[in-house]
Input
Amino acid sequence: MSLFKDILSSEESVFKNEVALDFSFQPKIVPYRESQQRVIADCIKPLCVKRNGKNILIHGPPGVGKTVAIKQVLKELGEEIDDVQILYVNCWQKNTTFKIFVHLCEQLEYPHTQNKGSEELFKVVKNVVNKESAVFVFDEVDKVEDMDFLYSILEEVFRKSIILITNYPSWLQKLEQRIVSRINLQQLAFEHYTLPETKVILQQRLKYAFHEDAVEPGVLDLIAEKTFASKDMRVGVTLLREAGMLAEERASRTVAVEDVSKALESKLDLDSTASMADDLLILLELVKEYPGLKMGELFEQYTAGGGNAAYRTFARKINKLGDTGQVVLEKISGGADGSTTLVRLPAEKKLTEF
Ligand SMILES: Nc1ncnc2c1ncn2[C@@H]1O[C@H](COP(=O)(O)OP(=O)(O)OP(=O)(O)O)[C@@H](O)[C@H]1O
Ligand SMILES: [Mg+2]
Output
C-alpha cells in the first residue's frame, strides 16, 4: 500500500506560510482600524513627554480586531519609544491579581517570583515602572476574578495608561466604586466589519498564507460572504485554512470553490468553527455573571451587553452548554409566562436543596 503517495512536497503545497492562518498571526497592517488605533495612541502619547496617560475601555463583539489592533499599536510604540514599559496581559489566562502580578514581573524580566505573595510582586512591578512610565493592557478583562490589581496600579503607578478590553461594555457597571472614581475611562467601540471590509482583510490574509495563483476565483467571495454573515473574522481565517487543507487532501495545487463548500458542509453550520467555542465561553461567562435567570431574561442581558445573535441561535447555544454539563437547564412549566427554562450553574443549588 502507498497510503501517503499523494502527499504534496512543500513546493507543491498551496500554502506559502500556513502560520499566517493562526489566529494570533500579526499582519503588518490592520486595515479599517486606523481611527481606533489613533484614539488609543492619543491616550498613550502624553507618556512620551513625561506626562500621565489616559485610560480607555475598548469594547466590541468577538473577532472584530480588538486584539490585533492593540498589538499593532504596542508594536509601533515599542519600535519608536524607548522609555515606556509595555505590558500586555490576557486575563483569560491570568485571571487573578496574583497571576497578573507574576506575569507582569515576568515581562519585566524579574525572575525571582517564587514564594512571593501579591504584595511583594507588585512592589517589584511598581519599582521598575515608576522609574519611567508604562502602558498596561488587560485584554479580556471581564475574566478577572478580582480587581485588586487595578486598584494597586491606579494608586501606586505614577505615569501610566491603562487599556482594558472586553466584549461587554456592561462589565463597567460591575466595577467597584473605589476603582470607578479613580480610573476615568474613555470608551472606544469596535463595530463589525462591512462585507467589502471583510473581503479586503481576508484577501490580505490569503496573500500571506497561500502561493500566488493557488486560490481560484470565487473562493475569496464565498469565504468573505460567510464570514460577514457570522460577523467574526475568525470564521474566515478558519475557512481559508480548512479549504486549503481540503485542496491538499485531493492533491490539488489550487484551492477551489468546492473546497470551501466542503469545508462549510463538514461544519454543518458555522457555529462549529472556532467562533462557536468562543461564543460558548462568552455565554458561559454570562451565565456565571447572572446565574439562575430564565432563558429570556438571560437573552436580555446578552443583548444589553452587545450580543447580536437572534434568540433562537442564542437558545441553541445555551442548550449546547446544557448538553455538555457546563450549565444546568431546568424546565419549568405552567408559570405565569407559560413554560420556561431556568439557566443555572452546575454548583448552584436550588432553594429546595438547602
Ligand atoms: N482589521 C484586521 N486586519 C487583519 N486581521 C484582522 C483584522 N480584524 C481581525 N483580524 C483577524 O481576525 C482574527 C480575530 O481578531 P482579534 O483576535 O483581534 O479579535 P477580537 O476583537 O480581539 O476578538 P475577541 O473579543 O474574541 O478577543 C485574528 O486572527 C485577526 O488577525
Ligand atoms: Mg481579543
About this structure: Residues 348-354 have pLDDT under 50 and may be disordered. Residues 66-67, 139 surround magnesium ion (ligand 2) (CB under 6 Å).
